[in-house]
Amino acid sequence: MSREQQMTSVAESFSVPSELLPEDVELVRYVTPEEQFDLMTDCLEQEGFPPIREGGEISYIPGEDQMMAFAVATYVCVGRYPIDFAYTQPLTDDQWARVYEHQVEVTVPCIRELGYEVSDPPTLQTYLDTGPESRWNPVREVEQQVTEDALSTGRWGSFEEFLDACPPSPPADELRSGR
Hints:
By secondary structure, the chain is mainly alpha-helical. About 55% of the residues lie in helices and about 5% in strands. A hairpin with a 2-residue loop joins strand 1 and strand 2.
């Protein structure tokens, strides 16, 4: 997805009239998906929308009278820090094989070490033959367990904290570069 498509998607999702959108948004740089969250948080704060930080989660709750301004700020921040085109392309079979390898060698052992139950992985061929939407995903399998654990014991401040502990795939730049 191009920078313009990302910006258009934001504008459409918030139903922002085109006359409210700035014509020229300065591109600071293209970013990886991992970088975008922090950069967007900082950018939105600079645009006048500090995040609400609660229990390890970040959210924004602009007042009804601020919704359109928040939408425009989001549009501007996406324009400044769009995800690089290379990261918005569908993964190749070789890249999916790297995700699978990471999940088998890193994610599943991590999940099990933390005491959660997760199914054994399918074969690589079965994994690749299944569409991305319904493909085996060990993190999705334990999401409910992790959420219940977080609520009952406070073990996790957020699901993101769990994902940081047991990443579901290699870093995006590593996955896309073939390292």
